[in-house]
Amino acid sequence: MTPEALLANWNGAWQALGVASPDDALCDELQRRYAEPQRHYHTMQHLGECLAWFEREKALAEHSGEVALALWFHDAIYDVHAHDNEARSADWARQALLEAGAAADAAERVHALVMATRHDAVPQGRDAELLIDIDLSILGAERARFDEYERQVQAEYAFVPDEVRLPRRRAILQRFLDRDAIYATPRMHEQLEARARANLQRSIAG
Predict the structure, then answer these.
(1) Cβ neighbours around 178 below 10 Å, total
(2) Following CA atoms 13, 4, 136, 114 in sequence, which dihedral angle do they give, to the nearest 10 degrees?
(3) What is the mean pLDDT of residues 107-116?
(4) Fold type of domain 3-205
(5) Which InterPro entries match (predicted)?
(6) Its pTM surpasses 0.70
(7) Contact 106, 94 (CB under 8 A)
(8) What is the residue extent of each domain of the chain?
């Protein structure tokens, strides 16, 4: 997405919440986080791809502003050596919403949406389904982009020996492949499900 499109999405999300958008410092800080040097996949490329999907599918959301802000924050904190990135990102999102004057229930829903990106359970509710479909859209990307994604994830975890990393990676991908459906929303399921399954099978086969 262009800088102008990113800013329009950011401001539109806050407007949908019924609160004034915070000053540019928060938006700039989030973009700075996504540009950190340890990131190779969880970057502005990933965020931009997610927000582009959101713009196409946002009519499905019950609370569109909350889904958009959850996307902005879902990888805000990313330490490849940590296991609480989602929790810390979710806490930051909740704090930011409350400081901006959003309702407490909205802040809690955004917190829950960010936590859903741990992918440890099948998402429940329309907003969580949409958010997770968007976060997993990379699995159904065209072959060249999926292969780039695989290289990017490998680069982020280059410090892990292959004999440890590869079995773990295959196990993660197999869990998605074992689901009855990877995508819950109708159009993303139609467009991405078959290609995602082909990509995952090819990756697992190695």
Answers:
(1) 9
(2) -40
(3) 98
(4) Hypothetical protein af1432 (1.10.3210)
(5) HD_phosphohydro (IPR009218)
(6) yes
(7) no
(8) 3-205
